[in-house]
């Protein structure tokens, strides 16, 4: 299987040359303080949410493998601790998703708007 590139179109005879478009310096904008603040906030919040979620999940797996008598203990009526922890995994996952959504609306979106505004201000100079 070969991949063919699209043919390059030559300008029409007698036509004007293509306009020189000045591309913004994206690397400089990504290194700016507003964008760095956004990335730092995202890493911090996502790190905590991912750590808590995966930590709880792996703790449940370890308990299921090495603490069978504890997992078989009755918790509520016919439910044992193992089933309660499996249900709790779903609740922790949904909780992490909701907390991420709240952080996106309250923290990430304003920081992204500030970074975007700073980038557009730099682009007009």
Concise synopsis of the structure shown:
The protein is 70% helix and 4% strand.
Walkthrough of the structure:
Strand 1 and strand 2 form a beta hairpin. The chain is built from four helices and two strands; from the N terminus they run αααββα. The chain is mainly alpha-helical. The longest helix is centred in the C-terminal third of the chain and has 43 residues, at 81-123. It has a domain at 45-117. It has helices at residues 26-30, 33-66, 68-72, 81-123, and strands at residues 74-76, 79-80. The model has no long low-confidence stretch (mean pLDDT 85). Helix 2 (33-66) packs antiparallel against helix 4. The relative contact order is 0.13.
Overview features:
mainly alpha, 4 helices, 2 strands, transmembrane, DUF485, membrane
> Proportion of β residues?
under 5%
Main beta sheet strand tally, sense and closure = 2 strands, antiparallel
Percent of residues in helices comes to 55-70%
| Strand order within the widest beta sheet | 1-2
The stretches of 5 or more residues where confidence is low (pLDDT under 50) are: none
Helices and strands, in N-to-C order? HHHEEH
Roughly what is the average pLDDT, rounded to an integer? 85
- β-strand number: 2
- Would you tell me the structural class of the helices and strands? mainly alpha
Give the C-alpha Rg. Answer: 26 Å
Task: Please report the distance between the alpha carbons of the first and last residues.
Answer: 47 Å
Give the count of helical stretches. 4
Indicate the overall shape: elongated
Give the assembly state of these chains. single chain
InterPro entries: DUF485 (IPR007436)
Keywords: Membrane, Transmembrane, Transmembrane helix
Pfam families: DUF485 (PF04341)
């Amino acid at each position: 299987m070969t991949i063919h590139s699209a043919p390059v179109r030559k300008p029409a005879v007698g036509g004007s040359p293509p306009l020189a478009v000045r591309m913004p310096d994206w690397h400089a904008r990504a290194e700016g303080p507003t964008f760095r603040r956004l990335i730092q906030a995202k890493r911090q919040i996502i790190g905590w949410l991912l750590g808590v979620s995966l930590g709880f999940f792996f703790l449940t797996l370890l308990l299921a493998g090495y603490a069978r008598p504890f997992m078989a203990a009755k918790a509520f009526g016919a439910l044992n601790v193992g089933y309660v922890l499996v249900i709790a995994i779903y609740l922790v996952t949904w909780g992490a998703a909701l907390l991420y959504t709240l952080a996106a609306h309250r923290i990430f979106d304003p920081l992204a708007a500030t970074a975007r505004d700073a980038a557009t201000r730099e682009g007009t100079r």
